[in-house]
Design brief:
Layout lengths: L3 E12 L2 E12 L3 E5 L6 H8 L7 E6 L2 E2 L5 H7 L1 E3 L11 H6 L14 H13 L15 H14 L4 E5 L7 H13 L3 E5 L3 H7 L2 E6 L2 E6 L1 H4 L2 H8 L2 E6 L6 E6 L1 H8 L1
Parallel strand pairs: 3-8, 3-9, 6-7, 7-8
Antiparallel strand pairs: 1-2, 1-4, 4-5, 9-10, 11-12
Length: 265
């Protein structure tokens, strides 16, 4: 059994009295790619925001590598966790290169200046995200997808071995979505990701937790979770699920209501 990197126990959080995370418990093991899926409003992003401390839990515990994450210094947690969220606006005009270089901040003391290793790591991260030609461009003038790629490059430059991803590829076309997930998979790190696209989750995740109404409804390997019955129970849509002959992974085809009615008549 692989080492448990993160243990979340009885995590609760509410917005103005409305429960958004209701006694959530799960584990993430070393080297696993763990997905959180569920319909809009299910609590995926709320759980992740409590983990990377954009929100403060009402109750429960989060343990990272045997330590209480909620009591850990922000610098120490940044050395362990790299976060890519959904909102990536910045208040000032930085170049792409400067944004990516911010990933080096947890490794620096207050008045440390950028050294040759920092520059190498930033350049390496930009190259892997296909952004080396954009290094001197203004971050504010990038498209939504380009901004997201820059933020992922910043996470790579952070050199953490645990990524927390909150629907990181929503603004990207399918080519960049797969490039980024392929790249993250090759890093051989631990990943906890909220993923909107079920087929991407089935393709890349080792283990999946399904959230609905702020609770964990199901969990298991993709082939265990993604059945037509489960997908209907969670999303209310009919589907066909088959194992792909090349990838060996399950693939999901959603069935329009009109086709269902036509076949039933």
């Amino acid at each position: 059994m692989k080492q448990v990197r993160m243990q979340v126990r009885d995590l609760t959080f509410s917005y103005g009295g409305e429960m958004a995370a209701d006694h959530i418990s799960f584990d993430v093991h070393k080297g696993q790619f763990v997905g959180l899926i569920g319909p809009n409003g299910s609590g995926k992003s709320t759980v992740l925001k409590n983990i990377y401390r954009a929100l403060k839990p009402d109750g429960g515990s989060i343990v990272l590598d045997g330590e209480d994450l909620l009591r850990m210094s922000y610098r120490k947690s940044a050395l362990k966790l790299a976060v890519v969220g959904q909102e990536n606006e910045v208040p000032f005009d930085f170049t792409v290169e400067e944004i990516v270089a911010m990933g080096r901040s947890p490794h620096k003391r207050l008045f440390d200046i950028e050294n040759s290793r920092d520059k190498f790591i930033v350049r390496h991260a930009l190259e892997h995200l296909g952004m080396e030609d954009m290094a001197k461009r203004s971050y504010l003038h990038l498209s939504g997808g380009e901004k997201q790629r820059a933020i992922i490059a910043r996470a790579v430059a952070q050199e953490s071995d645990f990524f927390v991803l909150d629907e990181p590829t929503n603004h990207l076309d399918i080519s960049y979505q797969m490039q980024i997930f392929d790249f993250i998979q090759r890093l051989n790190i631990t990943v906890l990701a909220a993923i909107h696209d079920l087929n991407l989750a089935a393709l890349y995740c080792d283990y999946i937790y399904v959230l609905k109404d702020g609770r964990i409804l199901l969990s298991g390997k993709p082939e265990e979770v993604f059945t037509p019955e489960n997908i209907y129970d969670v999303y209310g849509v009919r589907s066909s699920v088959e194992r792909h002959p090349i990838t060996g992974k399950v693939g999901i085809t959603f069935l329009p209501a009109g086709i269902i009615r036509a076949r039933a008549s």
